[in-house]
UniProtKB/TrEMBL annotation:
Motif GXSXG: positions: 36-40
Secretion signal span: none
Protein name: Patatin-like phospholipase family protein
Keywords: Hydrolase, Lipid degradation, Lipid metabolism
Gene3D superfamilies: Cytosolic phospholipase A2 catalytic domain
Motif (GXGXXG): 8-13
InterPro entries from the UniProt entry: Acyl_Trfase/lysoPLipase, PNPLA_dom
Short sequence motif named DGA/G, residue ranges: 182-184
Pfam families: Patatin
Active site per database record: S38 (nucleophile), D182 (proton acceptor)
Domain PNPLA: start-end pairs: 4-195
């Protein structure tokens, strides 16, 4: 049984899309399980249906306004470097309206629903392939994995959206009496879950460099400090997920093929830049091609 695991990483998801395109279209790999966290959850439905060009078009044309209906920050570009600062008007207006977060991401839910149609959902559900997204249940203090096999269309759209909600910058969702947020707050790289579900070979796309690098700009204000702190915590979660995944794989005789980003793609993954994301997609494709040409390991026979 083979699984494709895609980590969280905001706009860096474009790189993962490029990797997946090579593995699916060029290497002709068939996956029994697609499991994603945050930005990874946006990719897995289309990848499972092999609608690679469609999801590529979405990822390489998305803008801030496609994600946020209330954007909590301003983006400034100077000498090719992007920095963020708080949008005081939007944040204050949002808090005064009773929101618990600095920004709102309901536009993202509309975007998901417009591209993951009910027809596409039914086609996905009819496949043997399983599609799973990761969410964080803040009320019960636990990570949950939501399979397309267990929900109807509206519920699954909710779970995909919730998996991407990087609170407190994006919406806090309430569902089934619990508060939910970005799956990355609990499991950035759900390798362990893929193996628990029976995967013997896991292709894991990690939207981070393998070797720690200086990949964050100095904090210029309270808002950038907050994003840097959250990024630091998510990096630590990711590191632990990978270490646990390797341990579980060793004990279950599973194989993990890692696809890390070869360079630091961005210092702020909440900034969506069309040109850069187009380059990252191609970079992911080229990297996967190069990696598979370098090493051609003998893989175990696929089991049902």
């Amino acid at each position: 049984m083979r699984a494709l695991v895609i980590s969280g990483g905001g706009s860096k998801g474009a790189f993962a899309g490029g990797v997946a395109q090579y593995l699916i279209e060029n290497k002709k790999l068939d996956y029994d399980l697609f499991i994603g966290t945050s930005t990874g959850s946006l990719l897995v439905s289309h990848l499972a249906l092999k609608k690679v060009n469609e999801i590529k078009e979405i990822y390489t044309s998305v803008t801030q306004s496609d994600i946020f209906n209330v954007c909590p920050f301003n983006i400034k570009r100077k000498s090719g470097i992007e920095t963020i600062s708080i949008n005081h008007f939007n944040v204050l207006r949002n808090l005064l309206s009773g929101s618990k977060t600095f920004g709102e991401s309901h536009n993202l839910k509309k975007l998901i629903k417009s591209h993951v149609t009910e027809q596409g959902f039914n086609a996905l559900k009819a496949l043997k392939t399983d599609v799973v997204v990761t969410v964080s249940n803040l009320s019960l203090n636990q990570v949950e994995y939501k399979s397309i096999k267990d929900f109807d269309y509206e519920d699954f759209i909710d779970w995909v959206w919730i998996s991407c909600n990087y609170t407190p910058f994006m919406s806090l969702a309430k569902k089934d009496g619990c508060e939910y947020a970005d799956g990355g707050l609990g499991s950035m790289v759900p390798i362990e879950e893929a193996i628990r579900r029976g995967a013997t070979v896991v292709d894991a796309v990690i939207l981070q460099t393998e070797v720690t690098q200086y990949n964050r700009m100095p904090s210029l204000n309270a808002f950038s400090l907050l994003t840097n702190m959250f990024s630091f915590m998510l990096d630590r979660i990711e590191f632990q997920n990978i270490r646990i995944g390797k341990f579980v794989a060793n004990n279950q005789d599973a194989i993990i093929n890692f696809y890390y980003t070869p360079t630091v793609l961005t210092t702020n993954s909440l900034v969506f830049n069309k040109d850069k994301m187009t380059l990252w997609w191609q970079s992911g494709f080229d990297f996967a091609k190069h990696k598979n040409q370098e090493t051609s390991p003998v893989e175990p026979e696929k089991t049902e």
